[in-house]
Amino acid sequence: MNTKMTLENKLLREEKERARERFRKKARTDKEPSTNDYSDRFDLHERCELADGYVKPEFADKYDERFRGQGIAWLVRTGVSPEEASSFSSFLGGVGIAKLVEIGMTPEKVDEYMVEVFNGLSIVEFVKAGIKPEQANKYAMLTFEYEHDSIQDIIDLIKEGITPEQVREYDKRFSITDIINCNDIGPSEANNFPEEVENYLIPLLSMINVLPSQYSQEKIKGIERHLLTVLLNIHDLRKNPDNYYFLGTGVSAAAILNRKTNTSYKCAENLETEIELLTKLREEVGETKNVVNYKQTISKKDIHVIEIEYIKGDTLERKLKEEKNFSSKKILQYGSDILNGILELRNAGIYHRDLHDRNIMIDEDEDKAVIIDLGAATTNPEKRHPLNRSYGGNNDLVSLGQLIYKMYTGHNLFNEGFGYSGADETKDEIKKEREAAYDNPEILKKYLNKVRRDVKGELGETIATILNDDLWTQPSMEKVEQTIRILEQY
Question: Residues near 437 by Cβ (< 8 Å), separated by ≥ 6?
Fold first, then answer.
């Protein structure tokens, strides 16, 4: 029985195709007609379309008035007669009917879809995607609610198993494409991201465990495009999101960790100079012990991302907040590490210029201090950097002396407040006080004596010796090596 029906259906289809071929030959002319040959029913544009389709004028008028020039040209080209075209729903146009006929759809099958909502071309897309009428019809109203989205978006919703009810749980700021991308995190988390976050970024931020509440706290806005460059160039992020973790942001940079490879990705503004210096350090010194090691750069147009060694642990700032101050042994150890990092940089002709407690990581695996962030570094010892207000001057050793003092006392030499003085007003006050001291030998002498009082014994004298230098002149290599020898005596 089934075999017989299959054979009958095949014969019927073949007969229909032969009939269409006969009609196609009958309704088309070998020579392109003149546009003047068509009736006033059609405007000039429609007449051109009919002429381009070689439709005989007398056949064009046989189609129902609802069919326009382009639709009739398509119907004739497909071999759909006026009678067959009129058997389809009046909601459908000529092009849609022609396309439906091409894929073997009958008027009865087409009517199973909500033709008053879905046009012929949309139904064709549903059929090709294997979307049944009962599935598609459930999403009909979404075409009005999301009128700027395409029928492919509806198909993707169905394939992802996202119901219309779930779609409506998302804020209206999200398009269907956004909703599909956010499917893994759901509407409650997606809706909680501030509106200033670009919608396409939300699922990517979620993949690396950035919570909505962190967006403002971590100051991600402004470096979104850099962060996005990292995420889009980590090719296995979507396959293995659990490997990645958002480490946080600095003033103008963000960092992501690959737990599997122990690699971090730094994205920031204007990385070209830092990339050059990290490359120079790797080429001239090789693998470093107390400066973060550089691996490679990911570039896309004007955006650069640095792939660097991940230092597991906390910044010196955070360690000091936790422990208040360190033992003399630990201070000498970390001070020596930072000094060795300065020497490694100097061996490549690089001056850091921005040593402070947030640019020093304490590696918890090896319990050592590592210099990070060469964003302010230079190869020109005469070039001044004005932004390290808390521990600056151009002299890397003077910055080191201030850091060693803080490790012992818990506060900045030029400010008695405990911990990191992050407020701009405080940093400006520190900068002003420090520069006044180094401009006046008598004031500097008072501060050096303060160091000796606050830090007892030889360590206090050592810190005073390191600090007793020109604030704006980078120390010679001999001075760096001499300081190393002094610290090695302890």
Answer: 414, 443, 444, 446, 447
> How many structural domains does the chain have?
4
Same domain membership, residue 322 and residue 385: yes
What is the Cα gyration radius of the chain? 36
What are the backbone dihedrals phi and psi of residue 363, each rounded to the nearest 5 degrees, phi first?
-70, 115
CB 20 within 8 A of CB 80: yes
Residues 361, 474, single domain; the answer is yes
Residue 151 predicted with pLDDT over 70: yes
* Domain final residue, candidates 151, 175, 192: 192
* Res 271: pLDDT: 82
**Does residue 427 sit in the same domain as residue 461?**
yes
40, 123, 172, 176, 259 from 158: Cα distances, Å: 45, 14, 19, 11, 34
pLDDT at 487: 85
How many helices (H) and strands (E) the chain has is answered by: 25, 8
Q: Which of 280, 309, 338 is the last residue of a domain?
A: 309
State how far the Cα of 177 lies from the Cα of 203, in Å rounded to an integer.
12
Higher pLDDT, 400 or 261: 400
347 & 460 share domain = yes
User: What does the pLDDT look like over 12-50, one tens digit per residue?
Assistant: 778 888 989 999 999 999 999 999 999 999 999 999 999
Residue ranges making up the domain that contains 184: 138-192
54 and 120 in a single domain? The answer is yes
**Structure confidence at residue 139 (pLDDT):** 95
Answer yes or no: do 327 and 442 share one domain.
yes
Burial class (CB in 10 A: 0-12, 13-18, 19+), 382: exposed
Cβ-based neighbours of 179, under 8 Å, separated by 6 or more: 157, 162, 167, 170
Local structure of residue 62 (DSSP, 8 states) = T
pLDDT of residue 419: 47
pTM of the model: 0.61
Q: Give the C-alpha separation, 174 to 163, whole Å.
A: 15
Mean pLDDT confidence for 337-365: 94
> d(Cα 466, Cα 355) in Å, to the nearest integer?
15
* Nearest-angstrom CA–CA distance, 278 and 274: 6
